């Protein structure tokens, strides 16, 4: 992840923006933890484990929605862990899934085009400090 910070922005505002971003994507920016709103094979792998263990995740689709979040909390409670709905090293260890990720896994649904693709912005936009000066004449 790359974050550019505008001059003069306080550390508190930066930390608040980072927390909002983490909540939106369901992943920690500083550690190997995922939670509600995360999407990926690691989520699907844990959903599969939870479903096999009797915790109702709904569809194993790699999308950590409301039901997956509740199933994670149920698993954490049943195993004496801190109940926070976040899947990090302790929760994975309790599930026996703390080894290296297994290649492959379920086929995940297509998330559709990104906002950049929809706006025709597939290529990075030049930054203002990376462009030649514009001649006003």
Automatic annotation (TrEMBL):
SUPFAM superfamilies reported for this sequence: PGBD-like
Going by the entry's taxonomy, the superkingdom of the source organism is recorded as Bacteria
Q: Where is this region: Disordered?
A: 71-137
Q: Where is the signal peptide?
A: none
Occurrences of domain Peptidoglycan binding-like (ranges): 41-94
Query: What is this protein's record name?
Result: Peptidoglycan binding-like domain-containing protein
Species per Swiss-Prot/TrEMBL record: Ornithinimicrobium ciconiae
């Amino acid at each position: 992840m790359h974050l550019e910070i505008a001059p003069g922005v306080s550390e508190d505002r930066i930390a608040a923006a980072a927390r909002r971003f983490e909540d939106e994507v369901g992943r920690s920016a500083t550690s190997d933890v995922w939670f509600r709103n995360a999407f990926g094979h690691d989520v699907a792998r844990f959903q599969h484990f939870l479903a096999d263990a009797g915790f109702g995740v709904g569809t194993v689709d790699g999308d950590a929605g409301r039901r997956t979040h509740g199933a994670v909390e149920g698993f954490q409670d049943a195993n004496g862990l801190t109940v926070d709905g976040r899947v990090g090293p302790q929760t994975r260890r309790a599930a026996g899934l703390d080894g290296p990720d297994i290649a492959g896994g379920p086929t995940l649904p297509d998330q559709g085009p990104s906002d950049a693709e929809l706006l025709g912005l597939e290529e990075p936009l030049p930054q203002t400090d990376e462009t030649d000066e514009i001649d006003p004449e």
